[in-house]
Amino acid sequence: MFMAVTENPALKQLAVKKAPQSNSFCCEVCGQNGSPNIGMISAERAANICQCSRLKIYRWIDEGDLHYVELPDGAVLVCGKTLARKIEELSMNTDKLNSH
Fold first, then answer.
1. Distance between CA atoms of 100 and 85, rounded to whole angstroms?
2. What radius of gyration, in Å, describes the C-alpha atoms of the chain?
3. pLDDT of 35-89, one tens digit each?
4. What is the DSSP string of the chain?
5. What range does the domain containing 47 cover?
6. Beta strand 13-18 pairing with 2-6
7. Nearest to 85, CA basis, from 27, 5, 12, 10
């Protein structure tokens, strides 16, 4: 199952595919870039993992930091790989601030 959405006019179209024999979804963009089967999680779960608000997750989506898809029911799923990359970026920035 493929679903395509447009992030916003400034960003390219993203797609998501349902993982074989699973209720989870995979990031199609990461799959096209050589990382197949990268899982996607709800924006709410992403916010819990990052200990931030869903609004912050949506801001990162708008800034192009996270791959995402909006499902027909309105649920937003976020790419686990791009979320991990964002967490690492924030961690490195925190380390830099703490070293001064």
1. 23
2. 14
3. 888 899 999 999 999 999 999 999 999 999 999 999 999 999 999 999 999 999 9
4. -EEEEE--TTS-EEEEEEPTTSS-EEEHHHHHTT-TT-BEEEHHHHHHHHTS-HHHHHHHHHTT-S-EEE-TTS-EEEEHHHHHHHHHHHHHHHHHHHT-
5. 2-98
6. antiparallel
7. 27
Q: Count the domains in the chain.
A: 1
**Using N-to-C axis directions, what is the helix angle for 80-98 and 43-50, rounded to 10°?**
20
Here the tokens at position 21 are 């024999």
Assigned token pair, 51? 């200990």
Residues 6+ apart with CB under 8 A from 4: 13, 14, 15
Q: Confidence class of residue 31 from pLDDT cuts 50, 70 and 90?
A: confident
Distance (Å, whole) CA 34 – CA 76? 23
pLDDT at 56: 97
